[in-house]
Specification:
- By secondary structure, this protein is an alpha/beta fold.
- It has helices spanning 31-45, 50-69, 74-85, 90-109, 115-122, 137-146, 150-160, 174-185, 190-193, 203-215, 257-282; strands at residues 163-167, 194-200, 220-224, 248-250, 324-325, 331-332.
- It has 11 helices and 6 strands.
- The strands form 2 sheets. It has a 4-stranded mixed β-sheet. A two-stranded antiparallel ribbon has the order 5-6.
- Helix 10 links the parallel strand 2 (194-200) and strand 3.
Amino acid sequence: IPAEPLFRSRMFRRAKGAIPMGSDVRHVRGEAQKELVKKFEVFSSNGRSRWQVWSDWITMSAIAVSNATDRSHFDEREKQYLSIAGKYTRPEMEAFTEMLALLVVALEDNPEQDFLGELYMCLGLGNDHAGQFFTPYHLCEFMSAVTTPAEEFQQKIGDRGWVAVCDPTCGAGALLVAFANECRKKGINYQTDVLFVAQDIDYIVGMMCYLQMSLLGMPGYVVIGDTLASPSVSYDKRGLLPVNKGNVWYTPMLRIPVWQYRIFMAQMELVTQPIRKERVADAPKSEPQKSPEAPKKLEEPKNTGKPKAAKKPQRAPEQEPVFSEGKGGQLSFF
C-alpha cells in the first residue's frame, strides 16, 4: 500500500463497544485524544507492542507527508513505508488512517496544543532513562511570550525579510508550536516570515515534531541527530540549505513560492561566490600611500608640578541583544 492512500481512506469510524478495564482513555483530555487512544488500544488487545504500534504509525504518517512534497528521498522512504505496512492487515492500516485523520482535525480545531507530545507522555511511551519528559505546553506558551517582543521581532523581519528560529532539542515540537502561535497572536505571518529549524536525537520524537509542524503549516525542517555531537549546519549563512545526509525532513510549507525563491537565491549566492572572490583578487592594486614624515621630536618641558591622573575612557553602554544569533545566522531564544 503506497503512502498516499493514508489521505484517501475513510476519515472516521467511531470505535464501538465499552472502554476496556485499565484503558488510558481516562488519562487523556479532549474527544480527539480519547478516540485516538481507543483505536490505539485495539492493537494492544491483539497482542502487539504498544511502543511498536506507536512508532510504526508515526513513521508511516511522517513518510506519507514527506513523500507528497519532497522527492529527494522518496525511494528509500517509500521502501521503509512498505516494509512497515507489510506487518499489518488492511483493517489495521485503515485504523492508522483514522488515527492520522483524528490528528489532522484536532490540530485544525485547536492549533494551540502539543497534541502528540501530551498523548505520548500520557500513554507512558516516554523513555525515562533518556530523560524524555516533555515541557508542558502552557510553559512553552509563557517562554515564547516573554522572548518574543513584537517591536523587536518586527524590526528583525523588516531588516532581514525573515528570521529563523531553532530548537536544538525539539521533542514533539511544543516550543516551536507555541512560538508560531505567539507570532500569530502578534500579527506576524509565521508562514512567510519565520523559518523553523528543529533537531532531536530520537527518531520517533523528531517525526512527531515533523508531523505537527507540517500539519500546522510551519515552514522549515527537522534534523534527526545528536545536537552536541553533530549539530545541524547549513551551506548558506541563514540555514536555508542544510547539510542533508538523509536525516533532514522538510515540511510542505517550505515548498511554497516565497520560500522556494529564497532557497534559489541562496543557491545562486553560493554558485557566484567563487566568481566574486576571483574578481576581487584580479583587481589592480592601488599603490600604497606614503606616510608623512614624522615631526621632529620636541624637547619635553620639565614637569615641576604633580602629574595629573589620566582620565579613564568612558565606554558606551552595551545593549544586550534580544535574540542570540548562531553561526548559521539563525535566531534563537535559548
